[in-house]
Amino acid sequence: MRIAGKVIAGALSTVVFAGTAYGFSTLSALDDITRSDVIGGGGSVDEGQKHADGAMDILLVGRDARTDPQGNPLPQSVLQELRAGANGDDLTDTLIVLRIPDGQQEVKAFSIPRDSYVSMPGGKGKINAAFGRGKAAEASRLRAAGETDKNKIEQESMTAARKATRQAVEDLTGVVIDHYAEVNLLSFSEISKAVGGVEVCLKKATKDENSGADFPAGKQRLSGGAALAFVRQRDNLPGTDFGRMRRQQVFLASMAHEVLSAGTLADPGKLSDLIDAVKRSVVLDQSWNIMDFVGKMRGVSGGGIQFTTIPVVNPDYRYDRSHPTATAVQVDPAQVKAFAASLIGTAPPAAPAGQPRAAVEVSNAGEAAGLAARVADVLKGKGFAATAAGNAPEQRTSIVRYPAALAAEGAEVAKELGGLTAKESADVPAGHIQVVLGKVYSGPGVSDGGSAAGGPVKADQPQPVTSDGDNCID
Question: What would the pLDDT profile of 270-306 be if each residue is shown by its tens digit?
Fold first, then answer.
């Protein structure tokens, strides 16, 4: 049975709980929380890009695991309550990047679809497999080196798995991950109970045997197994996995509002239960100093967290021709990097050494609103100084024009946009490249959350979920 995305609330609880005086006075109780050296060993993004604004980026990971943070099997009673089978996979079914600003009110978070098809060690694959690949590779290395201690192999391979996941997220988004928090089935159950449940709202009644969801329409308070069923459900939802991801965001936004603005942190009993639940079920990176982190949370309020999702190219991408039913979520790393940079307020990552930085002017000769700006963002993510030049006279096909001195750069721009026609032109000013997007353009940036060169547009990018919004969903 697939248990996706249901466990990240524990990590968010750890984050939001730190922001009050009472929370500060009781943080020492978290000294014995499980730790893992996830951040050590260097990341895949240049250290020079770390946050000059003092902000912090946290990777929140939900694992499909039937063990506690120490690797012990969950009790059968817990598995029964959560409608989970005996075995889980080494997968990360929830990946959320949370930006904690320095001295600002608004916190922003974005989800990464678990099936995002990305490049990583061992070849391309779904991003949720990075964990299992990293773990298996390290375990094999240790055994080949003569290591026989099963506990040591397990612990060190788990650390490698977490690092592999962090690296995959950094490679895709261009975001430097400062800290890591991981939760699983046990985390979600215990933490949702500790806060006294979380209020959600459904537009209509829903029932699904696979997840155990069975809810009436309207507002209701959920915890434990019922809360898990709410965020697990994918059948009978718009967009299946994307619908489930929105469920997760709505639940977390409501939980953040609950913990930050209601009586959870002022209630010694609830707070004690929350701390105990976090200690039993959450893994943090070894370098995370919780006491220092409190300062980052001082400005956070119940209405200050916004959740959204990275843009995708094709949510039904056939990546393996030999298995036509095998699908993944196609993403464009350049578009994702531009999206993340825009969302969290940082400049896009620097271009690799030797990559051109020509000034690229993008104009729209078709009917798609905002297309030139979106394509310019894609090119910015590739290191070009791209700008949207507005509308051009209508034409059917797209073209990239360049002066003779920028032939290589013009060809590169054409390639990045899906293989457009490129043509040398004496009319283009020196140092500039002109991109004209025709009516049939279908390359990267064609739609927010839609398709590019690989499939039809499935859905528009949904509105962000906020912790002070109504957030009533299907």
Answer: 777 777 777 777 888 888 877 666 555 655 544 467 8
219: exposed, middle or buried (Cβ count in 10 Å: 0-12, 13-18, 19+): exposed
Where does 298-332 have alpha helices with state H? none
Q: What digits encode the pLDDT tens for the residues 83-140? A: 665 455 577 778 999 887 765 556 788 999 999 999 988 889 999 999 999 999 999 9
> Tell me, what amino acid is at 146?
G
Predicted confidence (pLDDT) per residue in 343-360, tens digit: 765 544 444 555 446 789
98, 62 in Cβ contact below 8 A?
A: no
User: Which burial class, exposed, middle or buried, applies to 460 when counting CB atoms under 10 A from its CB (0-12, 13-18, 19+)?
Assistant: exposed
Pairwise CA distance, residues 91 & 114, whole Å: 9
- Amino acid present at 133: R
Residue type, 376: A
d(CA 154, CA 184): 17
Q: What is the pTM of this model?
A: 0.69
> In degrees rounded to 5, what are phi and psi of residue 111?
-90, 150
Strand-pair partners of 116: 329
Burial (Cβ within 10 Å: 0-12, 13-18, ≥19) of residue 429:
exposed
| Residue located via tokens 């904690």 | 100
18, 258 Cβ separation under 8 angstroms? no
Q: Which residues pair with 97 in a beta bridge?
A: 59, 110
Kindly provide the b/e burial profile for residues 387-412, where b requires at least 16 CB atoms within 10 angstroms of the residue's own CB: bbbeebeeeeebbbbbbeebeebbeb
Q: How is residue 263 annotated by DSSP?
A: S
| 3-class DSSP state of 343 | helix
Phi then psi for residue 70, to 5 deg, are: -90, 0
Please report the sign of the dihedral spanned by the C-alpha atoms of residue 383, residue 388, residue 389, residue 395: positive
Nearest residue to 168 via CA among 95, 74, 230: 95
